[in-house]
Design a protein that fits this description.
This protein is of the alpha+beta class. It has 3 helices and 2 strands, in the order ααβαβ. It has a domain of 69 residues. The termini are close together.
């Protein structure tokens, strides 16, 4: 897995009209709002099914999905699952809107 860096040489893309338009049209595009797969725990997502359906990557919320809200410690099973997903070739991106850096655990 490529380590996350807060120091990027590439400029941020910013808010573009196409992003605003896509967001504003979501309520009139119910097919884009469907839950893809519901599971109790992140570790329960069937990786074989994702790969068979052509899924090439996952976007994971660290705060509330990979662990409880406001956590700074993630279980060994979550960390191992994230690393396993990356090792088999699935692109893994982890994000958070938390004020603290939660990426060191991964």
């Amino acid at each position: 897995m490529v380590p996350f860096s807060t120091q990027s040489s590439a400029p941020r893309e910013g808010l573009k009209w196409v992003k605003i338009k896509r967001f504003l049209t979501l309520p009139w595009s119910p097919a884009r709002l469907k839950t893809y797969r519901a599971v109790q725990r992140f570790e329960d997502v069937p990786i074989d099914a994702l790969l068979a359906e052509g899924i090439r990557g996952v976007l994971l919320d660290a705060d509330g999905t990979l662990g409880p809200h406001h956590t700074r410690v993630f279980s060994e099973s979550v960390r191992a699952t994230v690393h396993h997903r990356a090792q088999i070739g699935l692109r893994v991106a982890i994000y958070t809107n938390a004020w603290v850096d939660l990426f060191d655990a991964f």
